[in-house]
Design brief:
The longest helix has 18 residues, at about 170-185. This protein has a 6-stranded mixed β-sheet, sandwiched between helices. A 5-stranded antiparallel β-sheet has the order 2-1-4-5-6, covered by helices on one side. Helix 2 (about 95-105) crosses helix 3. It is globular. It has 8 helices and 22 strands. The chain starts with a strand and ends with a strand. By secondary structure, it is α+β, with helices and mostly antiparallel strands.
Length: about 350
């Protein structure tokens, strides 16, 4: 799949100014609530008309302000999974699927009936065919919405925070189920989320958005491993970020971590202003470089982790079991960070 978008859309007090080009099959858009993720999806789907710009999908121009091209949503070959699933409340599961086939004018009534049967079988909905949306669980509603969307065989799927309404257990189960379905049907998709775990697990290319703009783009692993800005680091889950004073090409003083001096294997350019350490990269024990005293610590407990804040302000996580109640014996006097694990950022 190849998609290219360069669009602007003005709202009261907000400007959506998005530009990206990508050939990946599975694209994730990660950002905080209100950053413009959903509006970007709606523009690609044709549900929002940009004020300026161009959108191209697989060489086909869907929107071009200059040439006054604006392909209607029903003719773009795109399926959209809304956050609330948008099922027709007065139709059964089967009725919702058949309505999609009818709306897409997919052949005869017999064809529609056979396709509906196959789709319900594939999505495990045959026993629920006569149920109305209000009689379904959240997971069943999602499967019905997906089945309705797949019935039209769209070339691109747009997934708008598909797990946002789920509890943690249901979210993890449905995430695996959706991955299986997408693999089975070999579908291209763009998914928006504010959950970095969802994006990391399901996507291979990532766009980071902030205040209506794309601030970073690239393969998911690369963005997580080497965020170039503090905003990108925070969006990908880095909680330890400090201003730095550069001492030489490989050493710096962390101004927000009580002035500790750390060494990195990467060269510290003159433009570098910040350093970051992911909590899971901190290790207990001593070594030759980057040894940090824990000092007086603050501790809070989750079922399977201790959250520890060291005296210098570094946030750290320690694995635990449900039967462990006292973390102080688990906190060593020193922790360390490998030089290659330190993030360097210019802004």
């Amino acid at each position: 799949m190849g998609i290219e978008a360069d669009i602007k859309k003005r709202y009261d007090g907000f400007l959506l100014d998005v530009s990206f080009k990508c050939d990946s099959k599975r694209i994730g858009i990660l950002g905080a609530s209100g950053c413009g993720k959903t509006q970007t999806l709606k523009a690609v789907a044709g549900l929002v008309r940009p004020d300026e710009g161009r959108i191209v999908l697989d060489g086909r121009v869907l929107f071009d302000k200059k040439t006054k091209t604006d392909t209607g949503p029903g003719k773009r070959g795109i399926g959209y999974l809304f956050q609330n699933y948008a099922l027709f409340p007065n139709m059964t599961v089967e009725g919702n699927i058949r309505a999609a086939l009818k709306g897409a004018a997919r052949g005869s009534r017999e064809y529609a009936g056979n396709t509906a049967e196959r789709i319900m079988e594939d999505f495990g909905l045959k026993d629920l065919r006569s149920h109305f949306p209000h009689e379904l669980s959240g997971g069943q509603q999602q499967r019905t919405a997906l089945a309705r969307m797949f019935a039209c065989d769209p070339g691109l799927l747009l997934l708008d925070e598909p797990f946002s309404a789920m509890d943690t257990f249901m979210r993890e189960a449905l995430r695996l189920e959706l991955i299986h379905i997408l693999d089975q049907y070999d579908k291209n998709f763009i998914m928006v989320s504010h959950d970095r775990d969802e994006i990391y697990q399901m996507c291979d290319h990532l766009l980071l958005m902030e205040e209506g703009r794309v601030i970073a783009r690239g393969p998911v692993n690369e963005i997580f491993e080497h965020p170039s800005t503090t905003s990108a680091a925070r969006l990908t889950g880095c909680k330890n970020i400090s201003r730095i004073e550069r001492l030489d090409d490989h050493r710096f003083r962390a101004l927000d971590w009580k002035g500790i001096i750390l060494t990195t294997d990467r060269r510290i350019g003159e433009d570098i202003r910040y350093a970051g350490i992911r909590a899971h990269d901190l290790m207990p024990g001593e070594g030759e470089v980057n040894i940090i005293p824990t000092g007086h610590v603050r501790i809070s407990a989750l079922p399977f982790e201790w959250y520890v804040i060291t005296e210098c302000g570094l946030w750290w996580k320690i694995p635990k079991t449900l039967s462990e109640y006292d973390a102080h014996d688990a906190v060593p006097g020193y922790i360390r960070i490998a030089p290659e694990k330190i993030l360097l950022m210019d802004r």
